[in-house]
Amino acid sequence: MKKGAARSTANSRKVGVLGSGYDPVNRIRTAPTNQRLSRAGQDRYRKRGADELEARLRNMPEEQLENFRALRDFSGSHSESPAPESREDEDMDPSLIHMRDVLDGSTRLEMSHAGGEFIAALQEGIEEEMSQTAGKKKKSSPDYRVRDDRTQNLVNGWKIQMERLVPAYMTWCAETDLGRPRETTPTMVEEMQITVVDLYETSTTNVELNAGGDGVAAALIKQGLIPCAPWNPSVAISTRVLELYRTTHVRCPQLAIQPFVKSLCDLHGVAYRPYLRDQFSVAYDVYLELRRQTDSLVNSALGRDSPKWRLKHACPACTYKLEGEEELIFSILTTMDGNDSLKRVLRRSKTDGSEDEPTLGPSKEREDSRDGGEDYFLSREQVDRWAKDRVADILPSDSKNPCSNRWKNMIDDVTSRMWGIFDETGIFLALCRHGFVLVVADMVRSGELSKYPLAIVNELLQAFGLKVGGGYDIGCHFDTTLGNSGLGDKARENRFRSLVGSFHGHAHNRLCQLSFLATYVEGLGLEDLEGCERYFSRSNVLAKSVCYASKFHRRQDITTFMKQIDDFETYPNLSKFLCDNYRQALKILKTEPELKRWMAREGLDDYDSFHVWLEEERQYLLGLEDGLPKKKEETVEMEYVRRLMNLQTSQSKLSSILSAEKAAAADRAAFNPTPASQVSRCHAIEKRNRDQELVQDLETRLNISSRWTSASPEWVLAVKAIKDREYQDALDQVEKIIVERLFEMTKINQSGTGYKMHKHIAKALQARSKAIKSAIERYNTVALDMNPPMPMLSWEEVVNYGFLADFDILRDTRDSIRSRPWTRPSYRVAMDNYFKILRAREEIKRLNIEIKRVVTWIDDEDRFLRKKEKQYEESDPALAVQISRYRQRRARSDHTHMLRFWALAKTPGFTGSLVPGRSVERQELRRASRATQQSAAETEIEVESAREASPQSEEMQDVGGWSSRSEEEWEDEEDEGEDAQSEAASNLLYQMSVLSVDRDDDRGSNRLD
């Protein structure tokens, strides 16, 4: 050290010198030193420094020596430091002089590898300055910053760096997948220490920052570390830890970030702190955003970044149409429903409202511009545009709905609202029949309003066009709403059909079933349209982790879960779904000979009778809507007869009391009226008088001059109407209790119902059984009074009734209906079996098409992705690695799919084909490419002709360049259709390879689900 930073006071002749030790053996600097030198020691220190400087100058190359002299001359001419001789002044503070020299560069301060000398010297100067000014009170300036936007500031910090972070992440993925060592360059200018959180330990790592690099965050990501802050991070989390949480969370959504971080703390042996959860959350958000951005680049490279591309290609079995396919009644079958489990609490500020009248404060959620829904969710604006069509629900309509009083989401729909503590009150989901997610919409501060299914249907019509079938638990009601809305004309033009799922359909009115139940809808096959219920049983476990999340994190969790389910649950089980449905259809078709034998015994020649019976039942039930047998309202005549009966009863009671008193008065010795008997007589008189007044009032209203008696024709008609009403009420009570019991039985068998809930439902069912027996006894009593008497009900018959359908037949009080064939139990069973056979045939027809679509898609997708991967291997290896990962995500299940299909092909009754076909979409693209190339070739000929006439035409040269580039882009696609014979041979080899695999693993394939 030549001239160290010294420290002394005015009363001391010694000087403190900061420096570093020197190890002559290893020729390195050691830890910092702090010496106290006297005046003689200072002279020796300066002399030794001058000697060292002179020795260095002698050994310095000529070029460096000239640079040193020029720098010294420049420093001497610009330095404002005092003259050297002034340093010897005893009254001057050497620390200020020496520190100024160090700062302006005139004095050199040597540093050790350990560092810290400069900071220590600067700190000493600061401490001395503070000690001198400690008695002075400084005026603090006001701080106007707020914390409401800190989340958005964090988001903005990451957003402006994302263009550099995504390539860094892709580079790290490529180095990891390809096994290449991390690239190091000799331009490293700095090392940065950072705390790294790994799976089993937390360590401090030196991170290399290269000259001209992309920043600290990118440097960390290139080493597989995700920083917890966009600028100057001090903590980073290993990518494998974040990936472990991601995969675990989507498999077990109950596992939120906080318990996972606590588990890491337990593994690391440290105490949990709340800020650790925040750090992990920031890093996890960045990691998911890197994955999203990477997937976006892959989709762009594959040409799959157009709007609604994911929706239009969500399911290969539904959307990958082939040339020469047989046309189906429904081009795609979907199901949709709302679910209120994934609610989110809106965080609000406290208010000063009273406890009796609590009020909700304003929202205190921080600003966050992120969405998180990707292309799965509809925006609130897309949904709210259909809110005006809510008026259609309360407008008069020609179509009456008999199920409106049986479903929660049909009742008070116009005023349906949700508690104010929630912002999002659930989701409204649409799936294809195979379970792939199509569209999702948030239900916002409301119940299941009609605007949500309307927005979903509009999106489906835009994506799929003609002949879409949409299942909904209240599809009968929604069909009317859709027809009256602004979307009605578009739906009718595209032949959209609103349907009802099988499970919910059996709880609908019988007339509704005949139009919407899956069993009777032509073209529906064996599809039950209840996929949403099965999906919600899995997604409901997300409720705990999203209830108190932010709007962004809730959507991000739901979207991540849905992508995982699509890729690793629904797609791997696609072939199982198709094969199981095929075997189920074949099993139903085996019952056809038994049905024919029954028809022969009953004298039926053909199947047309079943269609006739179904239409007769529909017409009969339609007649019930407007005819006499429907449930009557209370009339004035019926009330008049009831009052007459009450008057007769009260008059008879009063007469008996008076007769008893008269008989007792005859025997004066025994006659001793008690206060109780006198009160009874007074009450009887009052009751008689009150009933008489009511009767007289009704007689005045009905203009009756002569009071009716039991022999009057009017009396007989009114009594019959009263009995019919009592019969309907008794039947309604039995129906209501049975339905409640069946719904409770469904709940008790659901997965996730706890022990206490099981006990509670079981106890309620015991009470329900007693209520059912009481209702049956009341019904039988009323049924016997009917003229003619109605059928009696027993406990065994009622418990075995098929939901509400069988109750509708009993509602007619006429005897002629009993002679019709479709009212007999055996005929109804045969009719249902016949329509199931029809649906089984339709299912096989659809499955033959869907299986071939999947086989073709597997073949085309694998070849297409391998070509793209090879195309980018040289130009962009990192992108090629991501395309490879994209291909492997679903390819892992393709072999299992083929094994299942070949096992199905051996099943007797299989009529499909496993030979890949030709995709309609790909063929259209190839034809468009050929037309473009032909047009470009013609243009090129014209260009050549024009060039001969005018060689200077640069514009025509550009046209020819575009032509060559377009042909090059489509080169990989063209080789598939140039030679039909070569393609046929390739398909034959492909089938032979699969056959060989099937033969080698024949026993294993038969064991597959």
From TrEMBL:
- Database matches in Pfam families: KDZ (PF18758)
Protein name per the record: CxC1-like cysteine cluster associated with KDZ transposases domain-containing protein
* Biased composition, class Basic and acidic residues, residue ranges: 41-51, 363-374, 997-1009
Instruction: Please list where the region (Disordered) is annotated.
Output: 1-51, 72-92, 347-374, 924-1009
Residue ranges with Acidic residues bias: 968-981
